[in-house]
């Protein structure tokens, strides 16, 4: 059974119980009042009768006389009366009872004391309300009974009509309530159907961009739809991130395979060449001993260079793999002046043709940042080495600037620069901005590693470049105002 039908059934069941209770209360109220008034009238008529008993010997009752005017008044008011004398089994009737040939059963004399009060009887096809009064002799023994009755046909018809109206009204109300309740439940549950359709659409397909429309009020169902839409948005985001991650992983594996294939091919070619040369017998071939030695030295140098390149590639890939797994590093307050001085000194030993210029680092005295000194230096060396590679002439400058609560480490070069369209991609893995211009040094992982280190330190990087005029990188890092406790 659906929720809609269950809700309607519960609602209808509760309404049916309430209607039953209300109908019973109305019927009982009318019944008590209607028959209560009738009983009062019958009792009043019976108690107002002035009977004239005629006694015989030994307190025996011979007959009971009734005032003629009282008897006429009873008959005019549609009341019937009879007296029954148990000794002699004599029953006296009013004229209307004789005319209608109606008689009432009398209780046994042994039950006469318990018979005082009201009773109901059916005679001549009519229902009657009877009030019974025992008659006693002078010594107090019951010897006769007076019965005054009135027909209850009008009251019975009234109660039958009320019962019919209540039953019909209750069933009609219940049917209307069930139908209307089913309609309201269907209307109220229709957004749930949309949720189910959306869930089925997600289950059978891959489109997570669909959303559930809701034009209703912000009630429980409205909040449910909003929650489901929010969940769909998060799922879509996660799914997109997962697809991007898989695409990046496939691209990473493809690029890494390509980068590894080149040095491996070079190494294998040189090894095959050395094997072929060293297997030559004396006098075989046209190469002299000196030429063979020179060729061997060049091949070994190529093998060593390619091995170093592979080592750098593997180290960079390991760093990025650690970044992808969410691995963090230990951080502590780092004094800026000694770190930057050391970076400026060690950077001068990197291979470069451009002039290496460092700014005044004294402004960094007493300034600290929270981070890992080794990773920060690695990040700076990546940017400096990158500037050296793409600045065949001119100069590369290292200095610092301050803005609000941040320090900016600025690395400027006067090299070949980049096109502005390339800037959004320079931190992508295996991307080389100047590949189209024939500059292919490096493997395109350095800036990706540097960006990861910056992100882990809560910093950001700003790039300003112009093709043919050079590039400026500004690494912004948050300052630690309070010096560390010694």
From TrEMBL:
PROSITE patterns: HAMP, HIS_KIN. The keyword Nucleotide-binding applies. Residues 186-240 form the HAMP domain. GO terms for molecular function: ATP binding; phosphorelay sensor kinase activity. It is a multi-pass membrane protein. Coiled coil: none annotated. Its EC number is 2.7.13.3. It catalyses: ATP + protein L-histidine = ADP + protein N-phospho-L-histidine. The chain crosses the membrane at residues 12-32, 165-185. Its main location: membrane. SUPFAM superfamilies: ATPase domain of HSP90 chaperone/DNA topoisomerase II/histidine kinase, HAMP domain-like, Homodimeric domain of signal transducing histidine kinase. One of its GO terms (cellular component) is plasma membrane. Keywords: ATP-binding, Cell membrane, Kinase, Membrane, Nucleotide-binding, Phosphoprotein, Transferase, Transmembrane, Transmembrane helix, Two-component regulatory system. It is found in: Cell membrane. Residues 255-481 form the Histidine kinase domain. SMART domains: HAMP, HATPase_c, HisKA. PANTHER family: SENSOR HISTIDINE KINASE TRCS, SENSOR HISTIDINE KINASE YKOH. This is histidine kinase. It comes from Paenibacillus donghaensis.
């Amino acid at each position: 059974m659906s929720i809609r039908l269950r809700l309607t059934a519960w609602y209808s069941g509760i309404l049916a119980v309430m209607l039953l209770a209300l109908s019973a209360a109305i019927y009982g109220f009318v019944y008590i009042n209607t028959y209560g008034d009738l009983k009062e009238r019958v009792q009043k008529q019976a108690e107002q009768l002035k009977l004239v008993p005629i006694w015989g010997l030994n307190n025996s009752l011979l007959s009971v006389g009734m005032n003629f005017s009282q008897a006429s008044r009873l008959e005019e008011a549609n009341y019937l009366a009879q007296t029954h004398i148990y000794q002699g089994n004599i029953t006296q009737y009013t004229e209307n009872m004789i005319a209608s040939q109606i008689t009432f059963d009398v209780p046994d004399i042994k039950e006469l004391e318990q018979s005082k009060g009201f009773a109901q009887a059916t005679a001549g096809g009519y229902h009657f309300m009877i009030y019974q009064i025992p008659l006693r002799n002078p010594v107090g023994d019951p010897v006769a009974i007076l019965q005054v009755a009135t027909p209850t046909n009008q009251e019975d018809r009234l109660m039958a009509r009320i019962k019919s109206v209540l039953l019909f009204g209750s069933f009609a109300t219940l049917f209307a309530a069930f139908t209307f309740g089913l309609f309201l439940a269907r209307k109220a549950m229709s957004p749930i159907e949309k949720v189910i359709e959306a869930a089925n659409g997600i289950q059978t397909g891959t489109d997570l961009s669909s959303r559930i429309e809701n034009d209703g009020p912000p009630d429980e169902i409205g909040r449910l739809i909003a929650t489901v839409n929010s969940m769909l948005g998060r799922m879509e985001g996660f799914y997109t991130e997962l697809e991007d991650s898989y695409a990046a992983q496939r691209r990473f594996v493809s690029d890494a395979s390509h980068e590894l294939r080149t040095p491996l091919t070079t190494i294998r070619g040189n090894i095959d060449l050395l094997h072929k040369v060293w297997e030559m017998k004396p006098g075989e071939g046209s190469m002299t001993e000196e030429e063979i030695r020179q060729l061997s030295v060049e091949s070994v140098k190529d093998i060593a260079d390619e091995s170093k390149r592979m080592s750098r590639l593997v180290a960079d890939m390991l760093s990025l793999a650690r970044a992808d797994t969410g691995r963090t590093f230990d951080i502590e307050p780092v004094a800026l002046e000694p770190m930057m001085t050391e970076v400026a000194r060690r950077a001068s030993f990197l291979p470069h043709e451009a002039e290496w210029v460092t700014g005044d680092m004294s402004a960094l005295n007493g300034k600290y940042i929270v981070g890992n000194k080794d990773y920060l230096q690695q990040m700076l060396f990546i940017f400096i080495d990158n500037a050296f590679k793409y600045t065949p002439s001119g100069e590369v400058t290292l200095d610092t600037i301050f803005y609000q609560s941040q320090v900016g480490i600025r690395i400027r070069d006067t090299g070949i620069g980049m096109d502005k369209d390339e800037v959004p991609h320079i931190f992508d893995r295996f991307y080389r901005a100047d590949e189209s211009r024939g500059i292919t040094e490096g493997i395109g992982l350095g800036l990706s590693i540097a960006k990861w280190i910056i992100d882990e330190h809560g910093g950001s990087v700003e790039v300003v470049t112009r093709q043919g005029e050079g590039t400026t990188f500004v690494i912004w890092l948050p300052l630690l105002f309070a010096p560390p406790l010694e």
